[in-house]
């Protein structure tokens, strides 16, 4: 039997999105747009739409629309490497800095809410176990059709 944590994962997402609501309203952004900005900021080695789709398991069409909206607001820009003119890379603009900083603060708040009452040792053990579970999920997804 799985712990209720895994069967209530929608509650985790609801809490996460709820914490972002004031920021989204203030900045007139969608959750997806902020998720894209934070993904790019927190994962500098992954800078293409494909990376976002594959690593966040989001619909290609949604990511594409989010990128288009963010580029239109000058929060990110597209570029191509001289050695590979086919792949379009993404990078945050200077204007995205305050949005990323605020988003990271919300992410920290979320993390603290989830980890309240856990010792440093328990937090470390939890991180290790969740990483293992994440690897299992990724492996299972690679094997499924």
Features:
globular, two-stranded antiparallel sheet, 68% helix
Q: Your description of this structure?
A:
With 145 residues, the chain is mainly alpha-helical. The protein is 68% helix and 10% strand. It is built from 7 helices and 2 strands, in the order αααααββαα. The chain has a two-stranded antiparallel sheet with strand order 1-2. Strand 1 and strand 2 form a beta hairpin. Helix 2 runs antiparallel to helix 6 (97-115). The longest helix is centred in the C-terminal third of the chain and has 24 residues, at 120-143. The chain is globular. The mean pLDDT is 92.
Strand order of the largest sheet: 1-2
Average pLDDT number: 92
Report the uncertain regions: none
Query: End-to-end span in angstroms?
Result: 26 Å
In brief:
Helices cover 68% and strands 10% of the residues. With 145 residues, the protein is mainly alpha-helical. A two-stranded antiparallel sheet has the order 1-2.
